[in-house]
Amino acid sequence: MTTGNFANAPFLCPVCHQGLRFGPDMISCSAGHTFACAAGRIPVLLSEGDFSEVYDRQVQYFTDESSHYASDYHLDPWMKKYVDLALGHFGPPAPGATVLDVGCGSGYMTIELARAGYNVIAADLTPQSVLELSRKAEALGVGTRVCPVICSALDLPIADNCIDAVVGNAIIEHLPDDHRFVSELARVAKHSAKGLLVAPVKLKHVWPMFWPINYWHDRKIGHLRRYDKASYLSLLAANGFTADQVSYSGHLVKVAGVLLQTLFHTHRWDERLEELDAAKAHRAYGSSNVIVTFHKA
């Protein structure tokens, strides 16, 4: 897979689910549905049903957020933690192995998976994020392993049983139908495919003094729900996945440390905060995020 050349990517028409033909100026299927490419190189595979008031608000929020992404690329310690979790669970890539990074955002997970040798389909609904990711991937020399696409997470324009691993980092809580999302992951995943999901914990696990700011943040950023271990495991099991490990991040020690960063900030301080946070990964109470690794049964 090369950026701008998608002939070998497992994409389908989001309307009729037929195969796609990638021409120089247009993408089309045998039923006559046509699709454009953002900036002339990134497929925009959306159907009319993919748009709603909820999506419009969230796309606007993340478009505004992506405008603040750094133009250069760097991997912060908190990002590296999630990358290490993914790579530790997925293992070394087999030849041609493909990961689907849904809601790829700034693209750090996509880039690091590509650096590790995976082919990565980087999917997001926000054009600006995907375009910036494509640019960074090319600049970092991993463009040939990254296949960006603008699409809905609830109707993935991807063929059945073709993905070796899936990542959904801070996306499931934004989606109107989380069951449909996980069923889509199950549909595109191969047998024994592995996965990583990250989402905010239910408020019962959050220190009460932080409830108001979390409630405000949920409304601002478009969180529709929160999760705990039981809700995660139930959701995965209902769609043919088996959880391998549940852990937690963003404990009080890290929150306090982040506040102290307003006074001083060093890379080693960031690393130390992640070490302290990781020591409490087994503890739900006082955390911010619940993380689950899983596989397709």
Which helices and strands appear, and what pairs or packs with what?
Elements: E1 20-22, E2 27-29, E3 34-35, E4 37-38, E5 42-45, H1 53-66, H2 77-90, E6 98-102, H3 108-115, E7 119-124, H4 127-139, E8 146-151, E9 163-169, H5 178-188, E10 189-200, H6 211-221, H7 229-237, E11 241-249, H8 252-260, H9 267-278, E12 289-296
Parallel strand pairs: 5-8, 6-7, 6-9, 7-8, 9-10
Antiparallel strand pairs: 1-2, 2-3, 4-5, 10-12, 11-12
Describe the structure.
This protein has 297 residues and is α/β, with parallel strands linked by helices. It has one domain: Vaccinia Virus protein VP39 (Rossmann fold, 3-Layer(aba) Sandwich). 34% of the residues lie in helices and 23% in strands. It contains nine helices and twelve strands. A hairpin with a 4-residue loop joins strand 1 and strand 2. Helix 2 crosses helix 3 and helix 8 packs antiparallel against helix 9. The N terminus is likely disordered.
| The number of domains | 1
Biggest pleated sheet: 9 strands, mixed
Order of helices and strands: EEEEEHHEHEHEEHEHHEHHE
Show unreliable segments. 1-5
General shape: globular
Overall mean pLDDT: 90
**By helix and strand content, what is the structural category?**
alpha/beta
Global Rg:
19 Å
Could you name the CATH class? Alpha Beta
Report the sheet-strand fraction: 15-25%
CATH topology: Rossmann fold
Number of helices: 9
CATH architecture: 3-Layer(aba) Sandwich
